[in-house]
Design brief:
The chain is mostly beta strands. Helix content is about 0%, strand content about 55%. The protein has strands at about 30-35, 40-45, 50-55, 55-65, 70, 75-90, 95-105, 110-120, 120-125, 130-135. Strands 1, 2, 3, 4, 5, 6, 7, 8, 9 and 10 form a ten-stranded parallel sheet that branches.
Length: about 140
């Protein structure tokens, strides 16, 4: 029996801080994905320019190298986690600590509770629900 897959747009065309290659990206444009029906607990590490989309649930630590992108999709839930990437985009729910070395973007649909640290740029869209601490990473 063949496996049926679908590729859906995740709404990145509205982001302002992403590298151009991810504007309007779909789930198939990412190196790794956590699909809406999955729950992952543990640590994920990459030394390279990985791109990860979380549309399911994740709990643990994500540590990505230079040139990396982490997107918490609209249906994604990342809880009790510490995440580090060059670019971090939150469309879904996040609790924990996020380190966006270059840019952090929190979309209007996002619900965030935790510490958010950003490098050169931060964008928070209206209607995003944020509780916690927002701070710049010293240059």
């Amino acid at each position: 029996m063949p496996v049926e897959t679908t590729t859906t747009s995740i709404g990145l065309e509205r982001c302002t801080s992403l590298p151009q290659q991810f504007s309007g990206a779909t789930s198939s444009d990412f190196d790794s994905t956590v699909d809406p029906h999955s729950m992952v607990e543990g640590n994920f590490q990459s030394d390279g320019d990985a791109s990860i989309l979380i549309d399911g649930r994740f709990r643990g630590q994500i540590d990505l190298g230079r040139g990396s992108l982490l997107v918490i999709g609209a249906g994604g839930v990342v809880e009790d986690s510490t995440v580090t990437a060059d670019f971090v985009v939150v469309l879904g729910a996040f609790t924990g600590t996020a380190h966006a070395r270059l840019a952090l973007e929190v979309m209007a649909e996002a619900v965030v509770d935790g510490d958010l640290r950003y490098g050169a740029r931060v964008t928070i869209h209206s209607k995003a629900a944020i509780q916690g601490k927002l701070s710049a990473i010293p240059a």
